[in-house]
Design brief:
Structural class: mainly beta
Largest sheet: 8 strands, antiparallel
Oligomer: single chain
CATH architecture of the largest domain: Sandwich
CATH superfamily of the largest domain: Galactose-binding domain-like
CATH class of the largest domain: Mainly Beta
CATH topology of the largest domain: Jelly Rolls
Helix content: under 10%
Strand content: 35-45%
Number of strands: 21
Number of helices: 2
C-alpha cells in the first residue's frame, strides 16, 4: 500500500462531449433500450446508464476524439451501480478507425463477498480500488497520446455502466492544510411546532462537502497544477472524483462539483493561498 498521498482529482474525461471534447464521437458494442452511452459523463449517477443489449465477450464503450486530437490517459473511474464485480476491465487506446491497437491497461474488479456485499479498499496503483459506495478507480502508467479510447469488459457479460471518467489525473503536490472528508450538510429539513410545543421535523438528506485549503502555494505549483483546474472545475462545473488520501484511505473517494461562485488565489509576497470548496454530486439516499 502506498504511503499517505496528497489529493488526486479525476475530471479530465474523454467521454465528456458537453464540457470538454465537443468533437468526440461516443459508441458502444450495442445499447439496451432505455440506456444511452452519452449519459456516462452526465453526473446523474444511477439515473443515467448504458447497458449492452445482450451478453457478449469484450463488450465496450468508446470515445473517438476526432481527427487531429490526441490525449494521454492514466486513470479511470467507474461509478457505483455497475455490475462488473469479479470481471476484468481493459482500457485500450488506438489511433482511430482502422488503426491498430497500441497500448492497454488491464484491471481486475474485485468479486463480491458471499453475502453479496463488497469490500471497500484496495490499491489503485496496482488494480481497481473500491470506494465506500461501490465505485471503482485505478491509476495506471500513462498510455501514449491517442485519438480513440475503449473501456472493454473482457468476459462474456451484459455490462451496465452508470458513469465513466477516463483521462489524466491531477495529483496536487502538497497536502491540504485541512482534511475533512466526512464534512457534510443536510438538505430538506423542515420543522413545524404545534401550539403545545411539539416539534415535528421532516426527513433530512445528507451530502458531503469538501474543502481543499492551501495557505502557501509556490508559483510553480499554482501555475502548473492548481490553475489548470480553474476552467473545468470552476468555470464549467465539471464533475470531479476526488480521493483525498488514496494511500492511507483508498475507499474514501466521492464524486464532487465545485460548490462556490467565486475563485480566488491571491498572492502574498511570493506565495499564494486558496480554498477550493466542493459539494458531493448525487449523494446516496439512505
Amino acid at each position: 500500500m502506498p504511503n499517505p498521498q496528497p489529493p488526486v482529482l479525476l475530471y479530465d474525461n474523454v467521454f465528456n462531449r458537453v464540457r470538454q471534447y465537443q468533437s468526440a464521437t461516443l459508441a458502444a458494442i450495442s445499447t439496451a433500450t432505455g440506456t444511452d452511452v452519452r449519459g456516462l459523463s452526465s453526473g446523474r449517477r444511477e439515473r443515467a446508464s448504458w447497458q449492452a443489449a445482450a451478453a457478449s465477450a469484450f463488450s465496450y464503450v468508446s470515445s473517438d476524439l476526432g481527427a487531429g486530437v490526441a490525449k494521454v490517459v492514466d486513470s479511470v473511474w467507474i461509478d457505483r451501480g455497475h455490475n462488473l464485480w469479479g470481471l476484468n476491465v481493459e482500457v485500450l487506446a488506438d489511433d482511430g478507425a482502422g488503426g491498430s491497437q497500441v497500448n492497454t491497461a488491464h484491471l481486475q474488479v474485485p468479486a463480491l463477498n458471499g453475502d453479496g456485499s463488497f469490500t471497500p479498499g484496495g490499491d489503485p496503483t496496482t488494480g481497481m480500488a473500491v470506494t465506500e459506495e461501490g465505485a471503482l478507480y485505478a491509476f495506471f502508467p500513462a498510455l501514449a497520446a491517442r485519438r480513440r479510447f475503449f473501456v472493454y469488459i473482457v468476459e462474456n457479460a451484459q455490462p451496465r455502466l452508470t458513469g465513466v471518467i477516463l483521462g489524466q489525473r491531477v495529483q496536487l503536490p502538497i497536502f491540504s492544510t485541512t482534511m475533512d472528508e466526512d464534512a457534510g450538510a443536510l438538505a430538506g429539513i423542515a420543522n413545524d411546532e404545534s401550539d403545545t410545543g411539539l416539534l415535528a421535523s421532516s426527513r433530512g438528506y445528507d451530502y458531503r462537502t469538501l474543502q481543499l485549503t492551501y495557505a502557501n502555494i509556490g508559483s510553480t505549483t499554482y501555475d502548473n497544477t492548481v490553475r489548470q483546474m480553474r476552467e473545468l472545475i470552476f468555470a464549467r462545473k465539471q464533475c470531479c472524483f476526488i480521493a483525498t488520501n488514496y494511500g492511507t484511505y483508498p475507499a474514501r473517494g466521492w464524486l464532487y462539483k465545485h460548490a462556490g461562485t467565486t475563485w480566488s488565489a491571491p498572492t502574498s509576497g511570493v506565495l499564494r493561498r486558496t480554498a477550493i470548496p466542493f459539494r458531493e454530486v448525487g449523494a446516496q439516499i439512505k
